[in-house]
Design goal:
The chain is of the alpha+beta class. The protein has five helices and eight strands, in the order E-H-H-H-E-E-E-H-E-H-E-E-E. A hairpin with a 2-residue loop joins strand 2 and strand 3 (65-73).
Length: 178
Amino acid sequence: MPFTLRKATLPDRPAIEELIKLSARGLSRADYSDEQIEAAIRTVFGVDTNLIEDGTYFVVESNSELIGCGGWSKRRTLFGGDQYKTRDASELDPETEPARIRAFFVHPEYARKGVARAILEACEDEARAAGFQALELMATLPGIKFYEANGYQGTEPTELSLGEGIAIGLMPMRKTII
């Protein structure tokens, strides 16, 4: 399946938002309830404009359709779109701190076809070129196997409260890239 990987731009934002919703609803059902998915879309899953403005967020297109997105960050925020309240946009020190892998979402019809892997490889290459020696991320339950297959190791599972008594399970993960 041919596809094109490119840097996201601010005009891509509405299409990315729609892709995030489609991906979350289509690929998370085995691990999260509908209530958890919708709460995550409202409170956490979304576009982080800093990533686009920093030039570290990618989109993948096939036949002029957005089919994947994801990025890396030199900022402290580990996860969450613009609507997520717990954010720290200060920059990391590449010599002592890991870069972040952020906001990977794939259209359900294109899952397991190399889209996320292409984005991840681009992110790892760029983070390494920026001087980072390691990467970390907060994986959703559906993403754990993908990241493990790409050399990331999980630590202790955690839960994130989404409000109204709803929480989702997550897994902090890390990989050395030097």
